[in-house]
Amino acid sequence: MPRRKLLCGNWKMHKTRSEASEFFHSFTKRLGNLSDVTRTVDVGFGVSATLFDTCLTGVHGSGVKILAQNCHFEAQGAFTGEISVPQVLDAKLSGSIIGHSERRQYYNETDEFVGKKWNALAKASLLPIVCVGETRQERESGKTFDVVKTQIEQSLKQVSADARDKDFVIAYEPVWAIGTGLTATPDQAEEVHKFIRDLLSGAFGPERAQAIQILYGGSMNAANCKELLSKPNIDGGLVGGASLKAEDFALMVQTAKDLS
Ligand code: 13P
């Protein structure tokens, strides 16, 4: 069975509740019935905690996933400012983005930390979207594959056998392409995606690896998404800036649908 495409917006620290509501109004108007869309492609949004309810209302019953942008691996406790996996579950979200390079860069998140979050989410049958990717310096010094391999392998060490059986998504996001307008070329991205799939094949077996969605992230937009999404190992996108405008993101979802 061919892998489904997943287009997931990452709204980062953007939008108020009224802006989120307006977004879904416009998004739905452009795409028509969202339930019809999710019959063919997977669609999701990683949003701030203040927007969970508004977004869930905006996509109600359509199968569009609303996710957190981060969560903690402890079930509860004195961790001011954090959201636990049971809270993500209670909020009726589908999962969480974890290990985004902005979390790694500004909040010192390590592969071990990311792996613990992966483990906690998977155990709760929530979807972890695990972000990996190299910096410009790492790419220029030829370390891209090593960096991505280490990030995945070190995180996986924290994931227990039962949690490994649960679904997850990998997002390859070269740090130099995030928010810069510099996109990896489709060939550059495909090369790393293929490498990741081979790595997953070693860890999970070839059959399972064939079914895992690997997303590209980094200045993906309505103009460049078709070429990227046409590559055999690029199963979708984790989209920052271009997911903030309903018009642009609806076009991208439509492109993914047309390719499916
Ligand atoms: P941009 O699409 O704005 O480059 O952001 C990508 C990203 O970080 C998605 O997680």
Report on the architecture of this protein:
An eight-stranded parallel sheet has the order 7-6-5-4-3-2-1-8. The N and C termini lie close together (12 Å). The model has no long low-confidence stretch (mean pLDDT 97). It is an alpha/beta fold and 260 residues long. Strand 2 (42-46), helix 3 (52-58) and strand 3 (65-68) form a beta-alpha-beta unit. The longest helix is centred in the last third of the chain and has 19 residues, at 186-204. The protein contains 13 helices and eight strands. It has helices at 17-31, 34-40, 52-58, 85-90, 101-107, 111-123, 136-140, 144-156, 161-164, 186-204, 206-211, 225-229, 246-259; strands at residues 6-10, 42-46, 65-68, 95-98, 127-132, 169-172, 214-216, 236-239. It has one domain (5-259): TIM Barrel (Alpha-Beta Barrel). The site of 1,3-dihydroxyacetonephosphate has 14 residues, from strand 8. 1,3-dihydroxyacetonephosphate binds next to strand 8.
Alpha-carbon Rg, integer: 17 Å
Distance from N terminus to C terminus (CA atoms, Å) equals 12 Å
Strand order in the largest sheet: 7-6-5-4-3-2-1-8
Number of domains: 1
Provide the β-strand percentage band: 5-15%
Q: Give me the CATH superfamily.
A: Aldolase class I
Mean pLDDT: 97
Largest sheet entry? 8 strands, parallel
